[in-house]
Amino acid sequence: MEIAKRGGVIHLVCRNKERAEEAKAEIVKETNNEEVFVHILDMSRPKMIWEFADAFQQSNDKLNVLINNAGCMVNQRELTADQLETNFATNTLGPYILTTALIPLLEKCEDARVITVSSGGMLVQKLNVDDLQFEKGRFDGTMAYAQNKRQQVVMMEQWAKMHKNIHFSSMHPGWADTEAVRSSMPDFHTKMKNRLRTPSQGADTLVWLAISNVAAQQPSGLYFQDRKPVSTHLLLAQTRATAAEEEKLMNSLEEIAMKHKPGSG
User: Do both 20 and 58 map to the same domain?
Assistant: First the structure.
């Protein structure tokens, strides 16, 4: 909504067509910006993401900003139709494939940016590259989500080193009163509902990272909250990964992503 108000061309990549069309209609009505386009895609389905990205690049000659915002917190261990753990497929592998596939289009723009909506929950997790799909031990959906959010931050840091002409950042929107929080964390929502942010307050830093010149001057690869870069680790927490572990994450994601690329097997 905020980017549409400023004249941006919006591509909504959504799973549910009915809700996507409702969102589009609301944005157009509020902003008088007709440049809002809906694309239907399930971010947990790797092959479909590859196909979407390919089609998008064929029909669009540029992309200034990619915002990785889709996410889920499924509290039981479930597998997708591709036999991938649902949280990992949606929160980590999906953004990895979409970003990887769209980097050539982003590189055509002078001021291209990629922003991933992470979460402060990742602060309680150290990167675990030996169990990306939570096959070992007892499954905990909240911790799986937090691990995915840690993975997202590492991805952005790694891409920032690899692609110097694109600005990468991750951010924590703060705890906002959204449908996702209500459904995934009902106890937390009940306790905290009077102190939660509105969705527009949660989106403020995201919009700033997407369009502000000041944001673009920040070093690439940082993690933001309330328009400021903040540490990705709590003081004294043993959550830092080694360079080898971070490299292993990227290699593992590439391997899984390529297995699901159309025409690769």
Answer: no
